[in-house]
Write a structure and sequence with these properties.
With about 375 residues, this protein is an alpha/beta fold. It contains ten helices and 15 strands. It is about 30% helix and about 25% strand. A nine-stranded mixed β-sheet has the order 14-13-12-11-7-10-9-8-15. It is globular and about 60 Å long.
Length: about 375
Amino acid sequence: MDTDGSSLLTPMQLSDWMDISELSERDWTSTIGDETLRLAVVGYGSFATDFAVPAIRRAEPTELTVVVSRSEPDHLDGCRCIDYESYREGVAQDAYDAVYVSTPNALHVPHAATAADLGKPALVEKPMAATTAGCDRLTGAFDRADVPLMVAYRTQLDPVIRGIKRLVSNGEVGTPKVVTSSFSFSMDTDEAGWRLVEELAGGGALTDVGVYPINTIRYVLDEDPTTVTASIRHPGPPFDSIERSAHVQLEFSQCTALISASFDAAFDSFLRIVGTEGVLELNPAYTSDGDRRLVLTSGDQRTSWAPTYTDELVETFAYFASRVLDDRPVEPDGRDGWTDLRVVAAAYESAELGSPVVLTSGPED
């Protein structure tokens, strides 16, 4: 059987509370009234210009009041623009309540640490830093400042991914045994900029897009991997210092995850969870637009659904603002971001050694 739309998934014998229509709806709430979180955007590159700032303006309850940039951007009426030195010195800190960091990966640490020094909550783009040492510095800084630090893994604010987590935790596919996931595209090297510079990016395809499936699988399974095995490919210019592609195997307590990430392949973005009782598939998994489908199969029964579009970035800013204004914990937090970087570091180590790497415990404070 193949059904579409917002009907209950009764052919799959799913729990009564799981209406498929819920997977296009927000399942987190806010108790704020008319309050607004004023944001400073640190870094005004193409992502901030084309995606983040428009999302901030559409998200409620956020307001863009300060931009930190090397030069004064156009089309930012009503915002104060300051340079990085002024930001470090605390100039205009009364004009914003929290900080969004959208600079190259290696610069996340000093720019977010400034927010902590100023006592400002921060939302930091993924990956949280270029190294686990950078993650250690940030988690320590925000712990000492006692202000929230959130990493912008917007898939965790995607209603469909959140719904998949509920389906898995409710046992709808039984015990997960194999998870496969891929995120790839052919990079336009003329527009790649700092992403081709190891000192700024921290890595290539694995660091840039591989962290999406790593983080999402950890989130959906509600578990961290114990062992990492990986192979890395970076043959020839312009990928001399970073990898074109990476293939990673993660071992969990009862499940194996196989992940591919590439800058050198056709677009691909899927998540497939095979359990003892069924299979869940989402394609595309890491972008919420386009012809997206969620399919649940058990035996000869199949339910397929096309979710409505959700702007994950808008949801991320709205969630962050509501949690800060409500004075509630944020997720994913700095320790979540640290774990992803530890997995990435273990993957690079495994590829170099040609053998599996056993993961250690949590971050140092």
